[in-house]
UniProtKB/TrEMBL annotation, chains A, B:
The lineage of its organism: Bacteria, Bacillati, Actinomycetota, Actinomycetes, Micrococcales. Residues 53-283 form the ATPase BadF/BadG/BcrA/BcrD type domain. It comes from Microbacterium esteraromaticum. The keyword Transferase applies. This is N-acetylglucosamine kinase of eukaryotic type. GO terms for molecular function: N-acetylglucosamine kinase activity.
Length: 317, 317
């Protein structure tokens, strides 16, 4: 008798939830007896086809557990066609036991993890940033348009502004800043910083890596770094208030702010002040749970929930 | 008797000048009798090694002409180590007849083409932008730090700002703008614009391609497009005035503005006004010649010229 047969007979799997971000893919398998098994895989590569990456993770878990879950839920970074991905996952031979797939963008699972089924806005600001607003009737997405044309206030945005400020100080267009020492640690000859960065295969992450030091220098009183962090906070607040307005959320709606950028106390407090200037009654709430909790919640959300318009929910015929 | 022997005996080549830009590589071969032969090759790829690309062009011309020029001069986009490139070119077996190589960044040949040996500032603004200032004692470079951390006011900078403004109008953060129709011609579904742009192998050129339409809409009175163009003009003016100040150029120094961005009358006039606000006596001058003329001029520049510090000038031992 194989281990997998034992496992299936003992505890059939109810749900496999996947939170697929660029930094890591987190998974949770829930069995019929209520026990859960969490796992972590390497992050999703958003410039390659998503399906093989998601399928490989799901198949690996099903293989190990020896049981296919009735429901598979996914929140995926970079997902642009949830319907197509959900249907394609149901077609994978190794996932034949799955009866239902619910797929959505990771901004939705992030929202559900932070606010659950409450109305409000969640700003998730890491290397990129995406904001989701949910009101009684509908939900809206604000920004999350990537490092070239969007992601205002994100880690990339802050790092890019820091590099720009360093080069302005270097050629005489801008004031001196302690950011220069930070950037020189990476590129001692500033003349060569830009060709080396442009030739790098990891440009986005490299640029965003300067955000943390920028926040530290801002807290230490560097004017240039402080200006960048305050501008970032205002961009994040604009996204939050815009999402509340566009989603027609109630005046006392909840606001959640998650992600590495909010690790800066300066950015967090400027963000709160800027949101309150526009929305005095907004309630800032700590996250109820993680994006993985949000992926679990996907399975149980009512058919009338305003976020349902952002899901693909596919059942086997 | 071969054609090349005939050619060499009749008219030995004095000079081969190369202006190697990203759009095209322009060459001029000057023979002892004063006649010149111009040619055009595909543009230099700045994310690949430069030497093979430059050597191939020079070798092809030497082969066709049947005579190696005494002097080879080059202005090269993306050049970061002129000394190494110049020495390596002298080592190529097929360029054995060349006695001297002068190599520099294309911002230097652009300056020489526009202002010749006068003091002043040249702003060259196309997809990217680089500004050079020359005073009696020394020369300075301002910006030209590439599309990620620099190139303020360039075609890329304008196009990126236009895309950002379109997405802000789309998600409710910003005012409506006619730029939206332009961007929708390329990406009818704006939700998909950013993943498609990020996956493109021609991102920089694609972004910069929106600059021309932005200038047209600005001239037509679109407020958002107008704001972007005025901001760009101020960035370009800041680079010009900074370069004059850092190079300690005289008050009545010449200012040259070249490149596609200055094809916008709005940008050109805002640029002039902003430079004059800081430098009332600056003289705006039309270009004396092209970047290729500047590459030719490289060969004859005196040893005391302030731009000499930006050259590699290598002679065969």
């Amino acid at each position: 008798m194989s281990a997998s047969t034992t496992s299936t007979e003992a505890h059939p799997a109810e749900l496999l939830a996947i939170d697929a971000g660029q930094t890591g893919i987190k998974t949770r398998l829930r069995l019929a007896d209520g026990t859960t098994h969490d796992d972590l895989f390497a992050g999703v590569l958003t410039d390659r086809p998503l399906l093989p990456q998601l399928a490989e993770v799901a198949e690996s878990i099903v293989r190990t557990a020896g049981t296919a879950p009735a429901t598979l839920t996914l929140g995926v970074s970079g997902l642009t066609d949830a319907q197509a991905e959900a249907e394609a996952l149901l077609q994978r031979p190794d996932l034949a036991g799955i009866l239902r797939v619910v797929a959505t963008h990771d901004s939705v699972t992030s929202f559900l993890g932070v606010l659950g089924d409450r109305f409000g806005s969640v700003v998730a600001a890491g290397t990129g940033v995406v904001t989701l607003g949910v009101g009684p009737q509908h939900s809206v997405r604000v920004d999350g348009w990537g490092h070239i044309m969007g992601d205002a206030g994100s880690g990339y945005w802050i790092g890019r502004a820091a590099l720009d400020a360093v080069m302005r100080a270097y050629d005489g267009r801008g004031p001196a800043t302690a950011l220069t020492d930070i950037v020189r640690e990476r590129w001692p000859d500033l003349d060569l910083a830009y060709p080396q960065l442009q030739a790098s295969h990891d440009r986005v992450r490299t640029v965003a890596s300067f955000a943390a030091a920028t926040a530290v220098l801002a807290a230490d009183g560097d004017d240039v770094a402080g200006g960048i962090c305050r501008d970032a906070a205002r961009e994040l607040a604009l996204a939050a208030t815009t999402s509340l307005r566009m989603a027609e959320a109630p005046g006392d709606a909840a606001v959640g702010a998650v992600g590495g950028v909010f690790g800066s106390e300066l950015i967090r407090s400027e963000f709160t002040a800027a949101v309150n200037a526009e929305r005095p009654d907004a309630r800032f709430v700590p996250p109820m749970g993680s994006g993985l909790d949000g992926a679990v919640a996907l399975a149980g959300l009512g058919a009338q929930h305003p976020l349902r318009e952002r899901f693909a929910d596919v059942r086997r015929a």
